[in-house]
Design brief:
This protein is an alpha/beta fold. It contains 16 helices and 16 strands. It folds into 2 domains: about 270 residues, 3-Layer(aba) Sandwich (Alkaline Phosphatase, subunit A), CATH 3.40.720; about 240 residues, BPG-independent phosphoglycerate mutase, domain B (2,3-Bisphosphoglycerate-independent phosphoglycerate mutase, substrate-binding domain), CATH 3.40.1450. The strands form 2 sheets. Strands 3, 4, 5, 6, 7, 8, 9, 10 and 11 form a 9-stranded mixed sheet that branches. It has a 7-stranded mixed sheet with strand order 2-16-15-1-14-12-13, with helices on both faces. Helix 6 runs parallel beside helix 7, helix 7 runs antiparallel to helix 9 and helix 13 runs parallel beside helix 15. The chain is globular. The structure holds 3-phosphoglyceric acid and manganese (II) ion (2 copies). 3-phosphoglyceric acid (3PG) binds next to loops. One manganese (II) ion binds next to helix 3. InterPro entries: Alkaline_phosphatase_core_sf, BPG-indep_PGM_N, Metalloenzyme, PGAM_B_sf, Pgm_bpd_ind. It is an enzyme of class 5 (isomerase).
Length: about 550
């Protein structure tokens, strides 16, 4: 399907380097990318073709331009060369148009099976997921809409297992979402609806890529078994954690189980239904497996209730996880990885555990399997198990070593993608000094990687999937950093709306020119990489970022 061109020949590999969470900021107090010493990126400014790419909102398939980018939508766009409606948008549309709630519509079958199951068994509808409006993994509006309709349809008992965010939203905002959802529950007449358990998302349930199954085990204990620190309410759990550590980010609030005088208010029992309302898959797959796999062996579950389990979306179409889901995802096909595999081109993907699935699963359009076992080399460097403000260099050196080794001249690898997680994972801790070190560590390793690419007569496309470290403090409406009662800047842990850098480092290729485009965005990267590989970018992809020789 891919055709070749003869405009030039790059004999070495084409390498896409994703500096995760390294956006182009406002060069202000909280811009850790600007404040970092980055001789490699500065040098790229001089020797490489340079532009910026949009990486947020509608440019990556999110519902609105107020939505920041994230790793899923960013890597989907990078790998597919095209913008697809993302989970956030698909769910938003299904809920707003109410097709999800109309009995008999094509899109409501599972919703009604779930409701009917609970009604028939006189059971409880449990909702588990990230309680915020970050719109990266979930949105509180979806919880409100679903519980409103469940109540309308006669469900009498609802329990919410609330994972507290602080990572895609303000670091200390959990109480606001708890109050909002509890007020909503109050308004559901004739329904007994309560928060039953929960905890900070980086301690409970939302592990990804099997980095720390203990997180999921803690979640299983709290949500299913009702085991864990007992509290009178979710707000009490938040307040007591903050009392102990006033600077604690919501991500790290310990697990909690809400009790009344009879004990836990909402364990998960036979006959119940469980909706995992996160739409994004990376941090939802493990809990889905714990509910669905009969031969599950990642931790001791003790009791496995016979429930009707549903995901907001199907998180992995290859593996069919979970078996049932409410909203169908976009079918992302003919991605760069798939096209290269069918053209017989050998590929490499490298990162550490925390971002391993980003360059494999997300890059390939949320597919976890390889297209061609013999043509794809995937390398995962095990991540440290710490909060990354403590190790801002993370595994950047090891990722670089592994990439350089894998790209040896005998490897036959023509295309590689590499993700350096530092700018993002450290950005999420809200620690400005650590974020500066994270960016500096990445820059140092990038130098070594680019030298290797040059030696191999290859080309590097260096970019990012969205911003994060480029804004480490919250700003007021005049773009001034907000200060807390003690005069300290208030950390911002979430991604940013900023564009990302794009450098094309092509030492052997003269005369490359940036294409004039109304908008340059992440989806322009795959066609650019294909063109540099000597292949014609396919029709269904967006334009390459450089002019073809015939157009120059
Ligand atoms: O899951 C996370 O860590 C955050 O919600 C988003 O970060 P990512 O999109 O960079 O993974
Ligand atoms: Mn990312
Ligand atoms: Mn992130």
């Amino acid at each position: 399907m891919l055709k070749t061109h003869n405009d030039f020949e790059v004999s070495g590999p084409v390498v896409v380097v994703v500096l995760d969470g390294v956006g182009v900021g406002k060069h202000d107090a909280g811009d850790a990318v600007f404040h970092a010493r980055t001789p490699t990126m500065d040098w790229l400014d001089d020797v490489a073709l340079k532009t910026t790419l949009l990486a947020h909102g509608t440019h990556v398939g999110m519902p609105s331009d107020a939505d920041m980018g994230n790793s899923e939508v960013g890597h989907n766009a990078l790998g597919a060369g095209k913008i697809y409606d993302q989970g956030a948008k698909r769910v938003d549309v299904a809920i707003r148009t109410e097709v999800l709630f109309e009995r008999g519509s094509d899109d409501s079958e599972t919703f009604f099976e779930m409701v009917d199951h609970v009604t028939r068994s006189n059971g409880t509808l449990h909702l588990i997921g990230l309680l915020s409006d970050g719109n990266v993994h979930s949105h509180i509006d979806h919880v409100e809409a679903i519980t409103t309709h469940a109540a309308r349809l006669g469900i009498k008992r609802i329990r919410l297992h609330a994972l507290l965010d602080g990572r895609d939203v303000d670091g200390q905002s959990a109480h606001r979402y708890i109050e909002k959802i509890e007020a909503h529950f109050e308004g559901l007449s004739g329904v007994d609806a309560k928060i039953a358990s929960g905890g900070g998302r980086m301690l409970v349930t939302m592990d990804r890529y099997e980095a720390e199954w203990d997180m999921v085990e803690r979640g299983w204990k709290a949500h299913v078994l009702g085991e864990g620190p007992a509290v009178g309410s979710a707000l009490e759990a938040v307040n007591s954690a903050r009392k102990e550590n006033p600077d604690l980010n919501d991500q790290y609030i310990p697990p909690f189980v809400v009790h009344d005088s009879n004990g836990p208010v909402g364990t998960i029992e036979d006959g119940d239904a469980v909706l995992l309302f996160n739409f994004r898959g990376d941090r939802a797959i493990e809990l889905s497996r714990a509910f669905e796999e009969s031969d599950f062996d990642k931790f001791e579950r003790h009791r496995v209730p016979d429930v009707f389990f549903v995901g907001m979306m199907q998180y992995d179409g290859d593996l069919g996880v979970p078996a049932r889901s409410l909203v169908k995802p976009s079918k992302i096909t003919s991605t760069m990885g798939e096209l290269l595999a069918s053209a017989g081109v050998k590929q490499l993907a490298v990162s550490e555990t925390q971002k391993y699935g980003h360059v494999t699963y997300f890059w390939n359009g949320n597919r976890s399997e390889k297209f061609r076992e013999d043509l794809e080399v995937y390398i995962e460097v095990p991540s440290d198990r710490v909060t990354f403000d403590q190790r801002p260099w993370m595994k950047a050196a090891e990722i670089t070593d592994a990439t350089i080794e894998a790209l040896n001249p005998n490897s036959g690898i023509r295309f590689a993608r590499v993700n350096y997680p530092n700018g993002d994972m450290v950005g999420h801790t809200g620690d400005f000094e650590a974020a500066v070190i994270a960016v500096e560590a990445t820059d140092l390793c990038l130098k070594r990687l680019l030298a290797a690419v040059r030696k191999l007569n290859g080309v590097a496309i260096v970019t990012a999937d969205h911003g994060n470290s480029d804004q480490m403090y919250q700003l007021d409406k005049n773009s001034e950093p907000i200060r807390d009662s003690q005069g300290r800047f208030v950390p911002m842990t979430a991604h940013t709306l900023n564009p990302v850098p794009l450098w094309i480092y092509a030492p052997g290729l003269d005369g490359l020119k940036v294409r004039e485009l109304a908008t340059r965005r992440l989806s322009n990267v795959a066609p650019t990489a294909l063109y540099l590989l000597g292949l014609e970018p396919p029709e269904h992809m967006d334009d390459p970022l450089i002019l073809k020789r015939s157009e120059a």
